[in-house]
Design goal:
elongated; 47% helix; four-stranded antiparallel sheet; single chain; alpha+beta; five-stranded antiparallel sheet; Alpha-Beta Plaits; 9 strands; Beta-Lactamase; 2 domains
Length: 298
């Protein structure tokens, strides 16, 4: 019996590949797909054959994909092109392509690899690089970048901005009495309440521990900043849900620094807001001590 020629094995080898193989004609119609395509897009080969491949592309990626198609059909291979397709069930798959144009056959040959999991992992790493892992707020690094940009814009447009430095009152007592898990939940609840009080153009950051900072851009006046502080205090005073047990409400001491009145650079503004917060916290503790002493005298 004669051994099978290697060329006769090519179709079987193609269908064994874990990556999907597409063959598309000059009019963008699919003329062949390998078996792996069904796992990739959810369609059988007979459902795809004869249909335009552009029908399955994510609409936001169409323009970039058409540019890649022009590049490939002009004779340049494209070995690292990424785009998204919509699967039969409506979900989205991220695909990494290697493609070339076969002039003799008048078709575009592409090999597609599902990189959805990889892209999600990369997105998560990018997010964690600039966000606090507990609360999801921006971290100090991203805050510093945004503050620098906001200061440049304020200087250029002769506008104002404000920094609010927040420290959670009695947070050590909450951790000591209710445990660190409850303290973490408290920080997340405060983060969500702070986010609800600001605009999309503002930034809420967790600096670490129980300290937060809010960057308010394009503030109209010191009165507007004071009103925002009152809004935040009112949001904090809202009753907490039952799962917080004996903790009824949250409260913060809020220090304020305004550009350009309190400083024109990031370090000066941060120092001013920090000092203002500690002055307020000191007055709060002093008032509490006075009330306790009065209660003892009575």
């Amino acid at each position: 019996m004669m051994p099978v020629g290697i060329e006769a094995l090519y179709p079987k080898l193609i269908h064994l590949m874990m990556d999907a193989v597409f063959v598309v004609d000059a009019d963008n119609r699919i003329v062949f797909v390998s078996d792996a395509c069904e796992a990739l897009l959810g369609y059988r080969a007979d459902e795809l054959t004869g249909t335009p491949i552009t029908d399955y592309m994510h609409p936001d990626d169409l323009e970039a994909t058409r540019d890649s198609i022009v590049r490939v059909m002009s004779g340049q291979s494209h070995n690292d092109f990424h785009n998204r397709y919509i699967r039969k069930d409506g979900s989205i798959v991220d695909i990494l392509w290697s493609a070339r144009w076969s002039e003799d056959d008048g078709v575009r040959i592409g090999v597609a690899r599902d990189v959805t999991t990889l892209r999600m992992a990369e997105d998560k790493l990018r997010f964690l690089a600039h966000h606090d892992p507990l609360t999801g707020l921006t971290n100090r690094s991203l805050f510093n970048d945004r503050l620098d940009s906001a200061l440049r814009a304020a200087h250029r447009h002769q506008s104002q901005l404000a920094l609010l430095f927040l420290d959670v009152n009695h947070f050590k007592s909450i951790n000591d009495t209710h445990g660190h898990a409850m303290g973490d939940r408290m920080l997340c609840a405060i983060a969500r309440r702070l986010e609800s009080c600001v605009r999309e153009t503002d930034t809420v950051t967790r600096l670490g521990g129980d300290e937060f900072i809010v960057l308010l851009t394009d503030t109209q006046s010191s009165d507007a900043v004071a009103m925002k502080v009152e809004e935040i205090n009112a949001a904090m005073a809202e009753p907490l849900r039952a799962e917080f047990g004996g903790i009824k409400t949250a409260s913060c001491s809020i220090g304020v620094a305004c550009y350009p009145a309190d400083g024109e650079d990031a370090d000066t503004l941060l120092s001013h807001a920090d000092a203002d917060m500690y002055r307020l916290k000191g007055r709060r503790l002093g008032s509490q001590l006075t009330r306790e002493q009065a209660a003892g005298i009575d």
